[in-house]
């Protein structure tokens, strides 16, 4: 089956991480819509890709969608790429794809590198389930909302190196210093690094070491068991036997398991 429009994944660091089909397709098309033509030019030169490059980024995507439609109506072949990885994954492209679907264009994807899937393939997990939220919001309250919403799911996000420390401190404040997380930096590149540890140790590590480059991170899912009433009651009884006061028990349990203090207090006295 032949298509006229292709969504093509490109490398996320190592320029060799591109499929043979992706190179064939990029060589076969007339035009490549790029997030930044200077970035794609490097890839095009490496693989002797001669297609015409033009920019299509978040600030001009709407108007470029119309131009791309015209090219396709003119029987030209067009591919969409982003600076790195898979277009439309925390990258521009969705507006264009929507316009093309609405106009009945046959679209196919040429899959390849993506920072989320590359990262997940390196992180040992107990469950297949995960939530990918793209770039985590900057505002602490919004981060808390996300951490709360996905507390029982492995939660993956992109973050910039400048903001990672604040985000780690917020995770520590929200879940406690023992919360297990994973952080990867510069995947597929020379200084690739993956750290899987308690948040306090990762904070310590990045206070002592370089925090530069591209980052993807995961907050491991909280075990549902830890929140169940039976589990909490079990812990309350242990502390009661040790002679702790109801006030101290609610303080300790709410801090350890991030549960509302009044809720714990009611369980202690109830
Ligand atoms: N479309 C891309 C993909 O498929 O992964 C993501 C584009 S998004 C604008 C760029 C963000 O992805 C970076 O800021 C970083 O959080 C993450 N990222 C991209 N390349 C990465 C790499 N080599 N190592 C770690 N994270 C990476």
Plain-language structure description:
- The chain is an alpha/beta fold and 270 residues long.
- The protein folds into three domains: 5-113, Tetrapyrrole methylase, N-terminal domain (Cobalt-precorrin-4 Transmethylase, domain 1), CATH 3.40.1010; 116-222, Methyltransferase, Cobalt-precorrin-4 Transmethylase, Domain 2 (2-Layer Sandwich); 225-269.
- 43% of the residues lie in helices and 18% in strands.
- It has eleven helices and ten strands.
- The chain has helices at residues 20-28, 37-46, 61-73, 94-102, 115-120, 140-149, 161-175, 199-208, 229-241, 246-257, 261-269; strands spanning 5-8, 31-34, 52-55, 78-80, 107-110, 130-135, 154-159, 180-185, 193-198, 215-219.
- The strands form two sheets. The chain has a five-stranded parallel β-sheet with strand order 3-2-4-1-5, sandwiched between helices. Strands 6-7-10-8-9 form a five-stranded mixed β-sheet.
- Helix 3 (61-73) packs across helix 4 (94-102), helix 7 (161-175) runs antiparallel to helix 8 and helix 9 (229-241) crosses helix 10 (246-257).
- The termini are far apart.
- The chain binds S-adenosylmethionine.
- Residues 12-13, 82, 84-86, 89-91, 114-116, 158-159, 184, 186-189, 214-216 line the site of S-adenosylmethionine (SAM).
- Residues in helix, %: 40-55%
Looking at CATH, the homologous superfamily of the largest domain is: Tetrapyrrole methylase, N-terminal domain
Oligomer: single chain
Shape summary: elongated
Strands of the widest sheet, in order across it, are 3-2-4-1-5
Q: What is the mean predicted local confidence, pLDDT? A: 94
- According to CATH, the fold-level topology of the largest domain is Cobalt-precorrin-4 Transmethylase, domain 1
């Amino acid at each position: 089956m032949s298509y006229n429009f292709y969504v093509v994944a490109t490398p996320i660091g190592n320029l060799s991480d591109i499929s043979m089909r992706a190179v064939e397709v990029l060589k076969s098309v007339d035009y490549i819509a790029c997030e930044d033509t200077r970035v794609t030019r490097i890839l095009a030169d490496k693989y002797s890709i001669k297609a015409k490059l033009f920019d299509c980024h978040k600030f001009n995507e709407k108007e470029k969608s119309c131009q791309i439609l015209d090219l396709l109506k003119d029987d030209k072949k067009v591919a969409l790429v982003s600076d790195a990885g898979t277009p439309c994954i925390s990258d521009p492209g969705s507006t264009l794809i929507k316009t093309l679907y609405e106009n009945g264009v046959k679209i196919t994807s040429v899959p390849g590198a993506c920072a989320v899937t590359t990262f997940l393939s390196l992180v040992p997990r107990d469950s297949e389930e995960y939530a990918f939220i793209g770039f985590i919001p900057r505002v602490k309250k919004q981060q808390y909302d996300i951490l709360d919403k996905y507390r029982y799911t492995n939660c993956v996000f992109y973050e910039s190196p400048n903001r990672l420390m604040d985000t780690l401190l917020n995770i520590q404040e929200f879940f406690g210093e023992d919360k297990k997380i994973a952080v990867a930096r510069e995947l597929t590149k020379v200084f690739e690094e993956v750290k899987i540890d308690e948040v306090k140790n990762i904070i310590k590590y990045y206070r002592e070491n370089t925090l530069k480059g591209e980052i993807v991170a995961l907050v491991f899912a909280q075990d549902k068991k830890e929140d169940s009433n039976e589990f909490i009651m079990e812990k309350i009884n242990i502390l009661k036997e040790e002679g702790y006061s109801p006030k101290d028990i609610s303080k300790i349990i709410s801090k350890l398991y991030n549960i509302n203090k009044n809720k714990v207090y009611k369980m202690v006295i109830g």
